[in-house]
Amino acid sequence: MSEKRRDNKGRILHDGERQEKDGSYTYRYTDCYQKRHKISSWRLTDSDVTPPGKKFKKSLREQEREIQVLIAKGIYNDGTNVRELVDRYISTKTGVTHNTKAGYKTVQNMLEKENFGNLRIDKVKFSDAKLFLIGLQKAGRSYSSIHSVRGVLRPAFQMALEDGMIPYNPFNFELAKVLINDSVQREALSPKQERDFLKFVKDDPHFCRYYEGIYILFKTGLRISEFCGLTRSDIDFKEHTLSINHQLQRTREGEYIVVPTKTNAGTRLLPIRKDVEECFRTILEKRVAPQTEPMIDGHIGFLYLDKNNMPMISLHWEKYFQHICQKYNRIYKVQMPKVTPHVCRHTYCTNMAKTGISAKTLQYLMGHSDIQITLNVYTHIGFDHAKEELNKMPNIEKELKSSTRRNGRKVANL
Fold first, then answer.
1. Catalytic hit among 150, 219, 299, 345
2. Which of 130, 152, 190, 357 could bridge 107 with an S-S bond, Cβ 3.0-4.6 Å?
3. Is it the case that residue 407 has pLDDT exceeding 70?
4. Residue 93 annotated among the catalytic residues of the structure
5. Domain locations along the chain
């Protein structure tokens, strides 16, 4: 029978253990996927002392116990850290938009700088994940920004869980219970605010050139990238319809691209009212044709062009709205709520909900893929509208009583 191997203190080493020439200990093992691994430590047991000048680490035997528990559960890890896991997860995402790619890149850059990115994924605890996100908020990042970061980390760790690399997903928790939600709720403008805003734009000698476009945004609820992508061929004056089938965007590298609508539901044919149609006619009449029409991915005839004769993008309109609000507040010494192209969309949705239109019809008009998004608008309708609806109740009751009497007479006649 062969003699058991011992360390320099005479202690018997277990199978797979070995003491190296420098005095450190190593352990080699095979995981449940038949892959070979090696771990090391300057201490064999918990009672051993770390040699002077050497970095403290869990003892070899403690690491072995943890490994055996994971192997018994069918879990393994090859030393992958958070940054490497996110890179692997992103490599599995194909066919994403350039905006999504930019979001991925932001998270990757962040993990390059943060110590959290170097943690082994099998060592990340729930508290580690929460403290990382809390730290981001303390550093000044907004709730919505952190929500996007978690939107990459959670599915990345879920992939690791499904691959058997970790025993649980440390990002599987409700974000609102961990962070302070400092997001500003987008509020729809009141009818008076909408009228005042539009009148100010129409009467202003500089901003009046954008009046028709802003009016259309308020009266159609289009996403700003959908509006920017509109061309002459998308407007059918004969059938009084507007075809929404693409978006115009510009990448961070300055490239203009035409992409599909945000979701399949975003592709839709909208009926347009006479006032909206007149705005489109005015835009086309005022439009100065450039020497060379810009063509983006086969699309030509964009409604608004900038000073370089390139199609206007969402950034242009965001700035126009910002400057309009600043000028309005400076002149009237009152605070018009922040108005953006998306506030126009939210205002349209809210106004349509107040008319009593069905949620499914409104979902179609808005191009929402999920009716829950549409239904959320109904929850934003405030006190004034609730009061108005309740005031109608006596008339409804009167009509019901009248209807009951008529039906009663019909039954008697039978």
1. 345
2. 152
3. no
4. no
5. 17-72, 82-177, 191-351, 382-414
